[in-house]
Amino acid sequence: MNAAAMRQTLDTIAEMFPDARCELNHRNPFELVIAVLLSAQCTDETVNKVTASLFEKYKTPQDYLNVPLEELENDIRRIGLFRNKAANIQKLCRILIDQYGGEVPRGHEQLTGLPGVGRKTANVVVSNAFDVPAIAVDTHVERVSKRLGAAKPDDSVLEVEKKLMKLVPRDEWTITHHRLIFFGRYHCKAQNPKCEVCPLLERCKEGKARMKAALRKPPANKTKRSAAT
């Protein structure tokens, strides 16, 4: 994909999802770190249900360390991999207190040094909490980028991120991240994408193949009549 094609793609998605934003509820950088950590292999909807009570009980890193691990595990039990995540939260909180005065560091390298915080999480935090342009590549962003030709099917997550950073103007990195997520979450879904009404169908080889296959498929009632004869 060239820059002109990317521009048209970005503008189209912007028209579709003008209100795209981070859907993880949070009030400060610390809560955002916890929410993104919990969101791994879990829906934002479930995370928000859990953090509604979690963030009332735990407001500071020290609060998470004042309870037994088992209690924290029980508080986030509805989250996938809750035992591992609870352990990482307590380890992360200990580092924040010991090394950063209880505050979330602003540097990408410092963030990725925290337990349970990978490159994607760090990108989400720096962009949403500290207004540093970044493109976090989650499953939605990766899928959409590959389907629309911004990246190759066999590209790694890091390669997808680097290609998007080259194609998208730096001051649009963060909002593009949100718009691609909304496009992938609500339109270009992993299963049953809305190809038949997609304004970007011509850019999507997979979508065009789906539509051709759908045209070749015989009507269900005709198939039933044939089976009956």
Automatic annotation (TrEMBL):
SMART domains xrefs: ENDO3c (SM00478), FES (SM00525)
Homology family: Belongs to the Nth/MutY family.
Cofactor note: Binds 1 [4Fe-4S] cluster.
Domain HhH-GPD intervals: 38-186
Keywords: 4Fe-4S, DNA damage, DNA repair, DNA-binding, Endonuclease, Glycosidase, Hydrolase, Iron, Iron-sulfur, Lyase, Metal-binding, Nuclease
Function of the protein: DNA repair enzyme that has both DNA N-glycosylase activity and AP-lyase activity. The DNA N-glycosylase activity releases various damaged pyrimidines from DNA by cleaving the N-glycosidic bond, leaving an AP (apurinic/apyrimidinic) site. The AP-lyase activity cleaves the phosphodiester bond 3' to the AP site by a beta-elimination, leaving a 3'-terminal unsaturated sugar and a product with a terminal 5'-phosphate.
EC numbers: 4.2.99.18
Highest classification ranks of the organism: Bacteria, Bacillati, Bacillota, Bacilli, Bacillales
Chain positions recorded as [4Fe-4S] cluster binding sites: C188, C195, C198, C204
GO biological process terms on file: base-excision repair, AP site formation
Name of the protein described by the UniProt record: Endonuclease III
Known cofactor(s): [4Fe-4S] cluster
A GO molecular function held by the record: DNA N-glycosylase activity
Reactions performed catalytically: 2'-deoxyribonucleotide-(2'-deoxyribose 5'-phosphate)-2'-deoxyribonucleotide-DNA = a 3'-end 2'-deoxyribonucleotide-(2,3-dehydro-2,3-deoxyribose 5'-phosphate)-DNA + a 5'-end 5'-phospho-2'-deoxyribonucleoside-DNA + H(+)
Cited Gene3D superfamilies: Helix-hairpin-Helix base-excision DNA repair enzymes (C-terminal) (1.10.1670.10), Hypothetical protein, domain 2 (1.10.340.30)
